[in-house]
């Protein structure tokens, strides 16, 4: 299960929450109770935690992104479907 980092905009409290991907993001700060939580997205933070599957997940997400945007596909040599090991 992935960790998400949150920071409270009201009191500055920072914490990590373990949530399913499908869970809605948290809103209320556990410290002050204000609905001011901001989700922090930092790839470096994920790296620090060093979970093996984070990297896999990140890579697949990136590939998806490229395919969606259609950019950078000029040199399409058949690498679109992940059949070759160039990724
Ligand atoms: Zn707070």
TrEMBL record:
It comes from the Bacteria. Residues 59-87 are annotated as: Disordered. SMART domains: CxxC_CXXC_SSSS (SM00834). InterPro entries: Regulatory_FmdB_Zinc_ribbon. Residues 1-42 form the Putative regulatory protein FmdB zinc ribbon domain. Residues 70-87 have a biased composition (Gly residues). Pfam families: Zn_ribbon_8. PANTHER family: CONSERVED SERINE RICH PROTEIN, REGULATORY PROTEIN, FMDB FAMILY. This is Zinc ribbon domain-containing protein. It comes from Thiolapillus brandeum.
